[in-house]
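Kindly inspect this one:
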Amino acid sequence: MKIAEIQLPEGYRPSEEEEYMCPNQRAFFRRLLLDWEEQLLEEAEKTVTIMTEEKAIFADPTDRASLETDRNFELRTRDRERKLISKIKRTIEAIEENEYGFCEECGVEIGLRRLEARPVTDLCIGCKTAAERQEKVTRITEEVHFES
């Protein structure tokens, strides 16, 4: 049976009592991701509608600048969400290929609660912490090098 065809019981939540990434768990995370993607697409559609309908004329340049700043912020947010939608799609593919829920670095189980909090995560907490530490070291090294 395909993951997309699984009907989960009302109120289902993955449990540590089940086999890790059993079909029900994968179906749960697939549904979670699809709902998230739908929400992001709805927000993007609202933004497009608002921006195309907005025909404001401002006598005051400050008001115009404020609107442009708000629009730029909104567009940056939507761009981040576009990238997130792409990651959601890749994650759904991983679920369907039974490759979801395991750290891409070390291969250990990521953990149900971590996946519920951030379903697109592909690193366990240990590898994510190490990657962030390395990122911070690299950034500091670049800043020191740049200031020299």
Notes: The two ends are 61 Å apart (CA to CA). The first helix runs from residue 23 to 53.
